Automatic annotation (TrEMBL), chains A, B:
Matching Pfam families: RuBisCO_large, RuBisCO_large_N
Protein name as catalogued: Ribulose 1,5-bisphosphate carboxylase
Stretches assigned to the Ribulose bisphosphate carboxylase large subunit ferrodoxin-like N-terminal domain: 10-137
Family statement drawn from the similarity comment of this UniProt entry: Belongs to the RuBisCO large chain family.
PANTHER family associated with the record: RIBULOSE BISPHOSPHATE CARBOXYLASE (PTHR42704), RIBULOSE BISPHOSPHATE CARBOXYLASE LARGE CHAIN (PTHR42704:SF17)
GO BP, one annotated term: carbon fixation
Organism expressing this protein natively: Halochromatium salexigens (Chromatium salexigens)
Length: 430, 430
């Protein structure tokens, strides 16, 4: 890029038509002049070539992504992560805020992803390392999206769950287990106090547990559990499958009594989820396979907060995400940022329910509640319910007892003295 | 995991039912005993819990992923990339080959991705860094997939392009340019010798260049170019859009005269591509946005070879990928591995056409041809055609002239003496 061309990729917020742009926050490690590198980053994600040969024209004023803010944080003698082919010499670590005109692609998730995470950002000259840290949408862009159909408030109303977390349980074992005993595990979990018994994200529609049969059994068991407990109960069926089966499977499992469906968001694709959302009769729940492959490293890829916002935009009512504690390899701040991304204001798009998960049990509930700071979350043990020594009914009961203790401001150990399921959870998982 | 449980996640190739398994090659950096870490990696991606409480059963023999081979390459004092939260202490760098029973999920791309790149591999205890290096399918798994409809040989036959590379050109400028002048650029490129004039991967269906109008203009221009040149010409329309618009857009652009369609594979989702493949009347071309976010780092994420194999499996006839040279930040070996992944034997799945691209022009053609080692590739300049000082007709002509030189074993510079377009390309891009 010639020196005279660089200014065309800079603007300031005071003159920007904010409604016409998305705001993108990237962290980059760049070679050479950061001002040039940031201009490349804008050019490559928008008007890489902004005029025809021998024509006096310039598409940048209306169509170029433009730098709003560029801050050099530090200089390093080389990239934070060694690369192949090697990148030699010093780099500048920068935060760059870019305004991208969304009319370049319109309110379409695949085209949005192609612009903000495509060849532009990841192959901009002299920008070998880049991470998209955040995205902020304008209301005019959001207006074209459906977002969650029910959202956090809608789920509370629909399932009559108030002033406490939503108690999910991942039925285990699942890979290999026949539908009949699998259903019995879920049923016992509901009786013990689970709100939502769910399929594992890897259990979909295999020959040895066809979803038609599994959902029929669990749909019927759910209704029995509702009669037995007088509470709303949810069977969350995993309909993750090829895209052309999403709608038929949704219809099938709902007819069979499933009253929420789970989709592994990135493996299926966010746009297919948006398609499903337009037809869905029940809440949509996201699971997180594939996300870590682009999000784990602090200085490369995509921040999980961005993936969470995009899942909410695609229409998920619930977003399951890696939660607190060392098991899920996610920094506490990042978990909190993901939770915030579910519930913070987002124009006309409803809040969704965050479910930070990972090796939970009654024992971890106080800590998760304390981290979140309120009861607007889902709690999703697997083993904590289904490997409980008193079985899933005892495991589920231990969750409710732990919540009673929290709500009463009583230590778990004290409450456990009168509650053997909680005592057993502490003994096993504590 | 208890010591006695580990053996259930190991097997050897001599006793394995090879047809029933996929083979996964991971590089991991793990803490503690590598044998335990590799068992966790298998457990988490398959039978994480393999028995019910108080039931004497074991789902591992049939359903567990199992280590076939584990090789400790070296020990490091810490992970290659610092992580948050920090991973303290020494790690072992290992290659681990795993056999995964594909009946756990069946021939479904989203479920395959969920198993091999999901919570299992990326959240296995004591495995903070992992990269999926390769995947090998058994014929029994592949038999359920459609793969490319035309494939490399079918494209040569359909478009009568023999004994030379396929010459693509990315029409530029594109972001902001009206369909009429955009079409004229493509038309001139065809006259000059392009086989395929293509939309940029960021140009889809915006208000300022509706794909209905653009494809009608280019479809008509393509037919005029065929009449003028006596050659087959291809307009490659980018139908990347929300999933529920893929089939309608395919039908629209084909009716308008587009004779190939491009889809940004990961932004749209591989499964949606498979859905499109079942209905498509024309060749499908993949573009690579989003892939680098999980593939650039040598020791984390997913190797591009895996993404290429999966794109071929989803049914793409052509896979555009980052090519040779420093501009595309991809090691030469990795480009060659991606090309091999397009054409190597893959059971009943046809070979597809590899298109290694990035800042190409007539000047880079000899190098790309030499690297590939044959003419079974696509060549996809943008500026090399559309910023050529003699315009796109001259730019396209310079590609054909460069190929004449290569085919005749003559240096470009020598051939340029009688070919002003090639001479101008050398002067501009050399």
């Amino acid at each position: 890029m010639r020196a005279a061309d660089i200014d065309g990729f800079y603007t300031d917020a005071s003159t920007l038509d904010a409604e016409a742009h998305l705001i993108l926050d990237y962290r980059i490690e760049c070679r050479g002049d950061p001002r040039v590198a940031a201009a490349h980053l804008c050019s490559e994600q928008s008007t890489a070539q902004w005029r025809r040969v021998d024509v006096d024209e310039d598409y940048r004023p209306r169509f170029a992504a433009k730098v709003l803010d560029l801050e050099v944080e530090t200089e390093l003698s080389g990239t934070s992560y060694p690369l192949l082919p090697p990148v030699d010499g010093p780099v500048s670590v920068c935060r760059v805020r870019i305004a991208h005109p969304h009319a370049n692609f319109g309110p379409r998730l695949p085209n949005l992803l192609s612009a903000i995470l495509g060849e532009g950002p990841f192959f901009a000259p002299d920008v070998p390392l880049i991470k998209l840290l955040d995205i902020t949408f304008s209301d005019s862009f959001l207006a074209a999206f459906e977002g969650p159909q029910f959202g956090l408030d809608g789920l509370r109303e629909r399932w009559q769950i108030h002033d406490r977390p939503f108690f999910f349980g991942v039925i285990k074992p699942n890979i290999g287990l026949d539908p009949e005993p699998f259903t019995e595990l879920g049923y016992q979990g509901w009786l013990g106090g689970l709100d939502i018994a769910k399929d594992d994200e890897m259990l979909a529609d295999p020959d040895w547990s066809p979803i038609a049969r599994r959902s029929a059994l669990l749909g019927a068991a759910r209704q029995r559990a509702e009669q037995a407990t007088g509470e709303h109960k949810v069977y969350l069926a995993n309909i993750t499958d090829e895209v052309d089966r999403l709608l038929p499977l949704h219809d099938l499992v709902v007819a069979n009594g499933a009253n929420a469906v789970m989709v592994n968001a990135l493996p299926v694709g966010l746009s297919a989820v948006r398609m499903l959302r337009k037809q869905a009769q029940v809440p949509l729940v996201a699971h997180f396979p594939l996300i870590a492959a682009s999000s784990r490293l602090p200085y490369f890829g995509v921040h999980t907060r961005v993936w969470t916002k995009l899942q909410r935009l695609a229409g998920f009512d619930v977003v399951i995400m890696p939660g607190f504690g060392p098991r899920m390899m996610t920094a506490e701040d990042e978990v909190l940022e993901g939770i915030a991304a579910c519930v913070e204001p987002m124009g006309p798009i409803k809040p969704c329910l965050p479910v930070p998960g990972g090796s939970d049990s009654a024992v971890t509930l106080p800590g998760v509640h304390e981290h979140v700071g309120n009861a607007d979350f889902g709690f999703v043990p697997g083993r904590g319910v289904f490997s409980h020594p008193m079985g899933p009914r005892g495991g589920a009961a231990s969750l409710r007892q732990a919540w009673e203790a929290i709500a009463a401001g009583v230590p778990l150990a004290e409450h456990a003295a009168q509650h053997p399921e909680l005592a057993a959870a502490i003994g096993t998982f504590g």
